[in-house]
Amino acid sequence: YQRRVHGMVKELSTCAEHVFVASNTLCKDMNSTNDMYKANAIRALRKITDSSMLGPIERYLKQAVVDKADTVSSAAIVTGIHLSQTHPDLVKRWSGEVGEALKQRGVMAHVLCVDT
What's the chain's average pLDDT? Predict the structure, then answer.
């Protein structure tokens, strides 16, 4: 069920008035105890994020980079890779979190892309 909701959020978020509601819903899922909800919310958030929303969600993404679940940290790191193309300064501020993620197994290849 939650996957369908994330898919719908991505599709509906193309309208500017829906982006705020969609991002709030996804931020709530990023605080979920379910790792798959977190990872899917991060992936969906990448699709709808614009410059005005980066500040509020940066904290969530930084926390997700060092999450103990590989699926969550990988989703956050891949999101960082995509964001680095348009907002490189934002991702450069994650150097401490990226260093921590390098110590975790399973996310090293993604982290190396962000760190360089």
Answer: 76
Q: How many Cβ atoms sit within 10 Å of the Cβ of residue 101? A: 26
DSSP-assigned letters across all residues of the chain:
-HHHHHHHHHHHTTSHHHHHHHHHHHHHHHT-S-HHHHHHHHHHHHHH--GGGHHHHHHHHHHHHT-SSHHHHHHHHHHHHHHHHH-HHHHHTTHHHHHHHHHSTT-HHHHHHHH-
Other CB atoms within a 10 A radius of the CB of residue 30 amount to 25
Dihedral-angle region of residue 51 (phi above 0 means left; psi in -120 to 50 means alpha; beta otherwise): alpha
Claim: this prediction has a pTM higher than 0.85: no
